[in-house]
Predict the structure.
Amino acid sequence: MQPNSFLNALIRNDKKVIKRIYKDNYAKVLYFILKNKGNRDDAADIFQKALLQLILRYKKEPFQIKISFEAYLFTVCKNLWRRELNKSKHKVTNSKVVELIDDDTDIALAALEQERWELFHEHLEKLSENCRKVLKLFFNKIPYAKIVENLNYNSETVARQRVFKCKNKLKDLISKDKRFKTLTQL
């Protein structure tokens, strides 16, 4: 099945395809969440949120999935789970009443983050192979000494300059994209 066929099936509430999506994808998401400070309920919630986010986003504005549906869904789930972990990191016990974000707003914000992530990765792939490698190492917080070693640079100064130039190329590509302005306004 083509990636967008799954989205259309979700919108049509095609139970056969939905069962297949669960059968083919849920175990991977469950495993990821269990390994990253979550439990079975968290995994079920994240999987449901991811499917709902995909449906709402596709209904609002149809988009093309350029990778497999399974990889795309897993990425959405990972991003949602990381978002949940970040939110729980910032929770503080306080006697004051705090207004909670409702589920609709939370799903909309998660969808916006997903679109930003897609824009970022789309333009990252447009960079040279060397830039992609150096930025992936940098974004994964690999020390400059290891970047020098991995990419056979002459010094950490060269690695820092390369990171700087590649980040600027990426920023330039992203800021020139017509979607950039809409994704930054909120």
Remarks:
- The chain is about 75% helix and 0% strand.
- The longest helix spans residues 103-124.
